[in-house]
Design goal:
This protein is mainly α. It is built from four helices and three strands, in the order H-H-E-H-E-H-E.
Length: 139
């Protein structure tokens, strides 16, 4: 596997909208954080979709920006955001394609898993979560 660029990322804004936060969902995904990168585990479907999903993003972004879309770093110089990044299953590979990726997730444990995997993969970057004050979802 090619080494990931040093400027890969996963980060977040300072606050969230209380109307769009479900604490149970944050807890559910946070509790599975150690399993994000297990390709045979609970996130197996995401791992199986990854090649098609990443190829789609690469193709759409390069076409929209008039980039050649070829070579080892077709997204070099491109800045992307991955909202709801979880363990970084999309952010990290996009960074390996040359993009500077900012990932945002409310589950602190998922961000910790993304940070740990990124460090193991040689991807330094921005990984954090917005401030969440435990407000209940309206509706």
């Amino acid at each position: 596997m090619p080494s990931a660029p040093k400027d890969a990322a996963v980060t977040a804004p300072a606050a969230t909208s209380e109307a769009n936060v479900d604490p149970a969902e944050i807890e559910r995904f946070g509790s599975m954080a150690a399993r994000w990168w297990d390709a045979e585990g609970v996130f197996r479907p995401l791992h199986q979709l990854a090649p098609a999903r990443l190829g789609f993003v690469r193709d759409v972004v390069t076409a929209a920006l008039g980039l050649p879309g070829t070579g080892l770093k077709p997204l070099a110089g491109v800045r992307l955001i991955d909202i709801g990044c979880g363990g970084g299953l999309v952010a990290e590979p996009l960074a390996r394609l040359g993009a500077t990726v900012t990932g945002i997730d409310l589950a602190a444990d998922s961000i910790a898993a993304a940070r740990a995997h990124a460090a193991d993969a040689g991807v330094a970057g921005r990984l954090s979560r917005p401030e969440h004050r435990g407000r209940r979802r309206r509706g």
